[in-house]
Design a protein that fits this description.
single chain, mainly alpha, two-stranded antiparallel ribbon, extended, DUF382, PSP_pro-rich, U2_snRNP_Complex_Component
C-alpha cells in the first residue's frame, strides 16, 4: 500500500512505467493483419565517435572562420574548441607545440643509426695549439714503460702543457666567438642540425660554391636564364633585377646562345621589353643627366689635414699679426658706428681659401631690434664721428692733460664702473624690509624713526652667521700662540 502511494509522487518511476508500456510488443491475432518487417522496424544506432565526426568542422570551414587561415592544420578540427585554439596560435609570442606530439614512434628514434660526430674544440681554443701539445704528451705517455708510469704516479711532473699567457688572453678576450643559440620560440626537431642556414643568402646572388657546382665560367649567365626569358621572371620576387631578363647584361657580356652568351633579349614585335626594365642599357645615361650634379657622399664636417709645413705656418702667423696690428692702428683713430664692433679692435681669422678674412665682415652676432626700440635712419650714415677734445688738469699718477667730450656723441653709452641709479637691481648695501599694509592704513603712515628701526633689525639679522652666534677667535689665537711659545722654549732648553 505504501509502495503504491510513493510511486504516485515519483516521476522517474512513472517514466519507467510508461517506457515499459511503450516497449511492449504488439500482438497480431490473425494473418490478415499487416505484420511489419523486423529489419525495417529497428533504427541503426550511431556511436559517439561517428556522432562527433558528423558534428566536426572541416578544414575548409575552419579556415573560412578564422582571421589567419595559414596556421590551420588538419589536426585542429578535432579540438574541443577549434576557434579558441586558432586564436591562441595566432597570438603574438606564442611558442608552438613540438611537431613530434602526434607521432607514434619514440622521440629521436630516427637518430639511432646515425653516427655521432666527435667533440671538437672551438676554433679560438684550437688556435692556441693546446690540442697538439696534449696529443704529443699522450703519445709520449703511451711509449713510456711500466716503471716510468708507476714512477709518475708517485711523483707526477707538472707544467707539461705550458702555454703562453698572451695566447690565452687573446684567445678568450679577443678572438672568442659566441656559440650558436636558438632564438625565442625556436624548438628543436629531428634533423634540425642538418638543415642549411639560408638567412645570409639573397635571391639573385650566386655564391662561388654554387658557380663551381654549376660549372659556370666567369661572366657567364646562370643556366636557367634561357627558361626565364621564355617563361618570365620568378613571380615570388617581382622587384628582382635579373641581368639579361629585365636588366642590362654586365659589361663585356654578349647576346647569343654560344657558351657564355646571354641568349636573345625578350622583346615584342615593337622592340619593347616584355618584362620591363632597361635590358639594352639605353636609359641609364639619360637618368644620370636628369639627376644633375652627382651626390657627394663624403663625411660632413670632417677636419682636413693641413698640408703646410711648420715654417710656412709660422710665417703666415707673423703676417696675420702684422695685418692685425695695422688694422688696430687704423681702427683706433676713429670710433665705429652702426653694426661694427665698438671695441676699437678688428679680429682676423685664417681662411682656407684666401689669406685672412675679417670675421666682423661676415658674421653679425648682434640682435636686431625692430619697431619701437630702434628706428632705421633714412639718411646716409657717416663712417665715423669726430669727438672734440677738452683740456683738463693732470690728476693722479697716470693722469693725462687731454680728455674727450662724450656728451656730444650720440647714444651716450654708460661708462664702466659707474652705478646706474635707474636700474632696479639690488646693490651690495641694500636691505629688504617688509612693511605691513594694515598698519599703514590704520595710522597716518610710516614715521622716519620706525623705518630706521626696521632697517637696523633687518641688517642685524643679515649680518648674523648661519648658526646664530658670533664666532670669537681670540681664545683660539691666544691658545695657539701659547703652544708656539712653549715649543720654542723646549727647543732652546735642548740646545
Amino acid at each position: 500500500m505504501y509502495k503504491g502511494i510513493v510511486s504516485k509522487f515519483d516521476e522517474t518511476a512513472g517514466e519507467i512505467a510508461t517506457n515499459k508500456d511503450v516497449e511492449k510488443p504488439e500482438v497480431y491475432f490473425s494473418d490478415a493483419d499487416d505484420i511489419p518487417d523486423e529489419e525495417n522496424e529497428q533504427e541503426p544506432k550511431i556511436s559517439k565517435k561517428k556522432r562527433k565526426e558528423m558534428n566536426k568542422l572541416s578544414v575548409a570551414e575552419l579556415k573560412a572562420m578564422v582571421q589567419k587561415p595559414e596556421i590551420v592544420e588538419w589536426t585542429d578540427t578535432s579540438a574541443n574548441d577549434p576557434r579558441l585554439l586558432i586564436h591562441i596560435k595566432a597570438h603574438r609570442n606564442v611558442v608552438p607545440v613540438p611537431l613530434h606530439w602526434s607521432l607514434k614512434r619514440e622521440y629521436l628514434s630516427s637518430k639511432r643509426g646515425v653516427e655521432k660526430a666527435p667533440f671538437a674544440l672551438p676554433k679560438f681554443i684550437q688556435e692556441t695549439g693546446i690540442a697538439e701539445m696534449r696529443d704529443a704528451a699522450l703519445d709520449k705517455q703511451d711509449q713510456s714503460s711500466l716503471k716510468q708510469k708507476q714512477r709518475e704516479r708517485v711523483a707526477p711532473k707538472m707544467g707539461r702543457l705550458d702555454i703562453d699567457y698572451q695566447k690565452l688572453y687573446e684567445a678568450f678576450f679577443r678572438f672568442q666567438t659566441k656559440p650558436e643559440l636558438t632564438r625565442y620560440g625556436e624548438i628543436y626537431y629531428e634533423g634540425k642540425e642538418y638543415e642549411t642556414n639560408l638567412k645570409h643568402l639573397r635571391p639573385g646572388e650566386l655564391s662561388d660554391e654554387l658557380k663551381e657546382a654549376l660549372n659556370m665560367p666567369p661572366g657567364a649567365p646562370p643556366p636557367w636564364l634561357i627558361n626565364q626569358q621564355r617563361y618570365g621572371p620568378p613571380p615570388s620576387y617581382p622587384a628582382l633585377k635579373v641581368p639579361g631578363l629585365n636588366a642590362p647584361p654586365p659589361p663585356g657580356a654578349m647576346w647569343g646562345y654560344h657558351p657564355g652568351g646571354y641568349g636573345k633579349p625578350p622583346v615584342d614585335e615593337h622592340n619593347r621589353p616584355l618584362y620591363g626594365g632597361d635590358i639594352f642599357g639605353v636609359l641609364q645615361p639619360q637618368q644620370n643627366d636628369q639627376q644633375g650634379e652627382p651626390i657627394e657622399k663624403d663625411l660632413w664636417g670632417e677636419l682636413q689635414a693641413s698640408e703646410e709645413s711648420e715654417e710656412e705656418s709660422e710665417e703666415d702667423e707673423d703676417e696675420d699679426e702684422e695685418d692685425a696690428d695695422e688694422e688696430e692702428a687704423e681702427a683706433g683713430t676713429h670710433s665705429p658706428s652702426g653694426l661694427d664692433t665698438p671695441s676699437g679692435m678688428a679680429s682676423a681669422a685664417p681662411s682656407e681659401f684666401v689669406g685672412t678674412e675679417s670675421v666682423a665682415g661676415e658674421f653679425d652676432v648682434r640682435k636686431h631690434h625692430r619697431g619701437t626700440e630702434t628706428e632705421e635712419t633714412v639718411h646716409p650714415r657717416s663712417a665715423y664721428q669726430v669727438i672734440p677734445e677738452k683740456q683738463t688738469s693732470v690728476q693722479g699718477f697716470f693722469g693725462g692733460d687731454r680728455a674727450y667730450d662724450l656728451s656730444t656723441s650720440s647714444g651716450n653709452p654708460p661708462l664702466l664702473g659707474v652705478d646706474d641709479q635707474s636700474r632696479k637691481r639690488k646693490k651690495p648695501g641694500d636691505v629688504d624690509v617688509s612693511v605691513d599694509l594694515d598698519a599703514i592704513q590704520a595710522g597716518d603712515g610710516l614715521s622716519k624713526e620706525s623705518l630706521q628701526n626696521m632697517y637696523e633689525v633687518q641688517r642685524q639679522q643679515q649680518n648674523q652667521p648661519q648658526w646664530g652666534f658670533q664666532e670669537d677667535l681670540s681664545d683660539m689665537i691666544a691658545q695657539e700662540s701659547r703652544k708656539r711659545l712653549r715649543k720654542e722654549e723646549e727647543r732652546r732648553g735642548k740646545h
